[in-house]
Amino acid sequence: MSSPLCIVFFGLKIDGDPDLDRPEFDELMAAARQVGLKSYSGKLTETAEKSFLLVGAEIGFFSAENATELELSLEDFQQLIDSVGTKLESIGLHQPPMIQIQWESDY
Fold first, then answer.
1. How far apart are CA 39 and CA 58, in angstroms?
2. Which of 49, 56, 58 is nearest to 21 (CA)?
3. Cβ–Cβ < 8 Å for 48, 17
4. Going edge to edge, which strands form the sheet with 5-16?
5. Is the pLDDT of residue 48 over 80?
6. Cα–Cα distance measured from residue 24 to residue 50, given in angstroms and rounded to the nearest whole number
7. Which residue has the higher pLDDT, 98 or 22?
8. Any idea where the domains of the chain sit in the sequence?
9. What is the reported pLDDT for 19?
10. What are the residues whose beta carbons fall under 8 Å from the beta carbon of 13, sequence distance 6 or more?
11. How far apart are the C-alpha atoms of 31 and 91, rounded to whole Å?
């Protein structure tokens, strides 16, 4: 059992069916790695009917067991913004990236 977790990414969140979208998620995760992006897949709860995939730049994982705070300068964040959009486009994801904050329950 792990503690509840708050995941923060700059990029895209893709919702899906945990049973049907696994191959698609795996392909996107591999493509993301090839261009230097991070990805994270999960579910809100163990029995959730939807899964999600975050693709972009990992800003942090926050919980009692992980980081509890983060400082990110405007200059560093601007560099992150500039690079993530270009990299997402290169793997065929054309939606504008956003800050993604995702909660995962303790399960």
1. 8
2. 49
3. no
4. 38-43, 51-62, 5-16, 98-104
5. no
6. 14
7. 98
8. 5-104
9. 62
10. 52, 53, 54, 100, 102
11. 6
